[in-house]
Queue: 2 jobs
Job 1
Amino acid sequence: MVVRSTIMDTNSFRPEHASELDEATRQLTAKRERLLGESYRLFYRRPVHLVKGLGQYLWDANGDKYLDVYNNVASIGHCHPAVIAAVNEQMQSLNTHTRYLHERILSYSEELLETMPSEINKAMYMCTGSEANDLAMRIAHAYSGGTGIIVSQEAYHGTSALTSGASPALGSGQPLSPNTGLLASPDHYRLAGQDVGVWLADRMQEKIDEMTTNGIQFAGFMADSIFSSDGVLPGNAGFLKPAIDVVHKNGGIFIADEVQPGFARTGEAFWGFARHGVIPDVVTSGKPMGNGIPVSGLFAKQEVLAAFSDQIPYFNTFGGNPVAMAAAQAVLNVIKEEGLQAHSAQVGQQLLNELKGLQEKYDCVGDVRGAGLFIGFELVSDKESKTPNKALALDLIEKLRERKVLTSVAGPHGNVLKLRPPLAFQAHDIDWLVGALDDALHMIL
């Protein structure tokens, strides 16, 4: 199989790995191949058959326990009892759409909007991040009158026709929209010594000017503020602001895709964009909102949303349904009651410090960077050249899997371990993760 997508194909099972599998796993992979569409991918050369989850842990069909260091779907932890209880209670009374009155969607919106800048005062709901980003792009078109959307060079924003056309991480098999402009990623590791904020703002203006030259009117910039698909590039707090100023100066809007950095993940703030001192025009979110229950949201400045909503009705059958809102409310309550933002900052810093010890120990660990419980662990050929070492990263992923630690890779070269555990991850889990990394690196090298 030709590797074409950094987020789908890099760390995936391939048919040539089948001979290495035990009989039960081989039968399951063969059944998947027979029944499911070929676009699907499984993680790992030896796929993991999971049957149970609790907090930051998962169990496979053999009863083996794993440490989950990748999952932000179950953002507050697998099978959190508060979410289970809220969903069960609401399912027993009513589940319908948003064309009937219901209190849950209103109370949740009111409470969530309080976590936003006051300028962002309108909410809309869908089921997936792709749907939220799709609507955000339509709003950008309506507000600006243009169609040009700028994203980072390895961005992933969804699977709809609009969003996949603005998701270069999906690879060469998925053509980009002719109205999509690719912005160079703010790779602080390789831009050491430069003012990355000024550098990125200059690249933004160049890309907008290029669009204008090609007859494309600029509509907006959509970004995940930690640039996770680009290799987890948090950078210094505030570096993004000059680029957003350029966006607004040129009549575009900033869409903050918070599916990955939002909901207390970065520790420094509830939302990833907030660490940069910017106010987005539109904020989108998805999977962390419902801890596994499909729900997503779009939050916008009233005057920006009005350009779309005053002209076009919007309806999403399951978006904002009472059960989804019950799950979302439970997640928000848990984040507040369990102090998960402060927890993410504290435990994330402890983990970062321990991982930096491995950076000092091994010449192949080029950089360790992160914000809260979102860390990039970059593998290189050597520290001087900073040459990405994809082969080592993929071998390391497999060795971690053998040590019952689950994670994956990111970045254009597939050489950055993306360490993003559920927020239930505790300080006592650090030894398991760092010890497994240390042992695996020692064995490979």
Job 2
Amino acid sequence: MVRATVMELKNAVRVFSQLSSASSYHSHGFDEKKMETHVEYCKHLLDATKVHCEVAECEEQQNRQRLEVARPVSLAEEARRKAEEQRKYQESCM
């Protein structure tokens, strides 16, 4: 979600920059100063997202590590459950 937001902000910077450039060459009805303000604001938001990206990446890494630790336990539990089902099945067949 954070990555998608960063990509959208980068896209906004690109679009507003293009609009700002176009408005200085042609009269498209866009205020060049407003476009530049939007560009600067989006760049400011991009700078602010760096901390959020680092936090999100850290959380993602911690989640991956938890899953890696939990996986062998889950596999062992599944093997134990299957062995118990197999034992019950064999007992019922006797």
